[in-house]
C-alpha cells in the first residue's frame, strides 16, 4: 500500500485536493450558496471535480514513472518503485484503470450538467501528460511549460466546471471569482515552471545518462539558472501587481503577497549560489512550500471578503 501511494504521488494529490478545496469552499461556495445552490450539491460537485482531476494527475504520474525507470535508477535509486516494489505490468494496468475511471467521471459530470465538455477535456489532458512522458520532457523548456500549464489548470478548471453558473451570475460576484481564478492560475503556472526548471537541474545526471535532453542538459546549469531567475522575476512582478490591485485598506490582503515575495527572493538567491544536487533538491522543496503558502492567501481573502 505504501508503494502504491508513493507511485501515484499521494502527497501531490493531497496538494491538488487542498488547492481545489480552498478555491471551491473558500471562493465558490459562499457565492454559489448565495445564489440558491444547496450545500449537498456543492459537496457532490467538489468530489466529482477533485476525483476527475486527481485521476488524471495519478495517470500522469504512473505513465511517467513507467517510462522513467532508467533515469530514476540514477536520480533517485532509493525511491524507485516501478520494477522494484510494483511490476511494470501492474503499473500499466493501474494507468489504464485511472484513464477509464477519469473518463467515466467526465461522462457523469457532463450528464449531470447536460453538456459535452469534460468528455472532450479528459482525452486531451491524459494524452498531453502521456505525450510529455513519451517525448516532450526531452525537449528543452517545452516539457516544463506543459507541466506548468497542467498546474495552472488545477484552479483554472473551475471556470469550465462552473461556466453556466458564472454566465448567469451578477456582478461583482462574477468578477471576483474570475479574477481570483485567473490570478491563482498565473501563480500556479509561474511557480510550477520555476520548480520544474530547478528539478531539471537536480535530475541532470540521470537525464544526461539516458539521453533525455531536458532544459538543464540542453542549456547547462548556468543558463538554466538564468531562465529560472527570469521566471522568478515574472512571478514576483505578478505578485506585486496583485498586491496593488487588492490595496483596499485591509493590511492583510496586500501585505501577504509581500511575504511571498520575500520568500521567493530568498529561494532565488539560494538558487544562484547552488551547485550540488542536494542544493537543487532543497530549493525544489522550498518552492513547493511556497506554492502551499500561496493557498493560504485564498483562505485569508475568503475570511475577510465573505
SSE topology sketch:
Layout: H1 2-7, H2 10-34, H3 39-67, H4 69-75, H5 88-113, H6 118-134, H7 142-161, H8 163-167, H9 173-202, H10 204-209, H11 215-245, H12 251-273, H13 277-305
Helix pairs in contact: 2-3, 2-9, 2-13, 3-5, 3-6, 5-6, 6-7, 7-9, 9-11, 9-13, 11-12, 12-13
Sum this structure up briefly.
By secondary structure, this protein is mainly alpha-helical. 83% of the residues lie in helices and 0% in strands.
List keywords for this structure.
mainly alpha, 306 residues
Our Rg estimate from Cα atoms comes to 20 Å
Order of helices and strands, N to C? Answer: HHHHHHHHHHHHH
Q: How would you classify the helix and strand content by structural class?
A: mainly alpha
Question: Helix count?
Answer: 13
Total beta strands: 0
Shape summary: globular
Quote the beta fraction. Answer: under 5%
- Quickly count the domains: 1
- Which parts are unreliable, with pLDDT below 50 for 5 consecutive residues or more? none
Spatial separation of the terminal alpha carbons: 41 Å
Report the helical percentage: over 70%
How is this structure best described in words?
- By secondary structure, the chain is an all-alpha fold.
- The chain contains 13 helices and no strands.
- The longest helix has about 30 residues, at about 215-245.
- The chain starts with a helix and ends with a helix.
Amino acid at each position: 500500500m505504501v508503494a502504491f501511494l508513493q507511485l501515484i504521488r499521494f502527497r501531490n494529490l493531497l496538494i491538488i485536493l487542498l488547492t481545489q478545496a480552498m478555491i471551491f469552499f473558500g471562493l465558490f461556495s459562499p457565492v454559489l450558496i448565495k445564489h440558491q445552490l444547496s450545500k449537498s450539491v456543492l459537496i457532490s460537485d467538489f468530489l466529482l471535480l477533485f476525483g476527475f482531476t486527481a485521476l488524471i494527475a495519478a495517470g500522469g504520474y504512473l505513465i511517467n514513472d513507467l517510462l522513467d525507470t532508467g533515469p530514476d535508477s540514477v536520480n533517485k535509486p532509493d525511491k524507485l518503485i516501478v520494477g522494484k516494489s510494483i511490476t511494470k505490468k501492474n503499473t500499466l494496468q493501474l494507468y489504464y484503470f485511472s484513464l477509464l475511471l477519469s473518463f467515466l467521471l467526465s461522462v457523469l459530470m457532463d450528464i449531470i450538467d447536460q453538456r459535452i465538455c469534460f468528455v472532450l477535456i479528459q482525452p486531451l489532458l491524459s494524452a498531453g501528460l502521456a505525450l510529455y512522458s513519451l517525448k516532450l520532457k526531452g525537449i528543452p523548456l517545452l516539457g516544463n511549460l506543459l507541466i506548468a500549464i497542467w498546474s495552472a489548470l488545477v484552479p483554472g478548471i473551475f471556470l469550465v466546471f462552473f461556466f453556466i453558473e458564472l454566465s448567469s451570475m451578477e456582478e461583482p460576484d462574477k468578477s471576483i471569482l474570475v479574477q481570483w481564478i485567473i490570478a491563482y492560475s498565473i501563480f500556479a503556472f509561474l511557480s510550477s515552471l520555476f520548480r520544474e526548471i530547478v528539478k531539471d537541474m537536480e535530475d541532470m545526471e540521470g537525464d544526461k545518462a539516458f539521453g533525455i535532453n531536458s532544459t538543464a542538459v540542453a542549456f547547462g546549469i548556468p543558463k538554466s539558472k538564468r531562465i529560472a531567475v527570469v521566471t522568478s522575476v515574472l512571478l514576483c512582478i505578478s505578485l506585486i501587481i496583485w498586491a496593488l490591485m487588492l490595496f483596499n485598506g485591509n493590511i492583510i490582503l496586500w501585505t501577504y503577497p509581500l511575504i511571498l515575495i520575500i520568500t521567493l527572493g530568498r529561494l532565488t538567491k539560494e538558487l544562484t549560489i547552488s551547485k550540488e544536487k542536494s542544493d537543487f533538491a532543497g530549493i525544489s522543496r522550498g518552492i513547493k512550500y511556497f506554492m502551499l503558502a500561496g493557498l493560504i492567501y485564498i483562505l485569508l481573502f475568503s475570511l475577510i471578503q465573505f
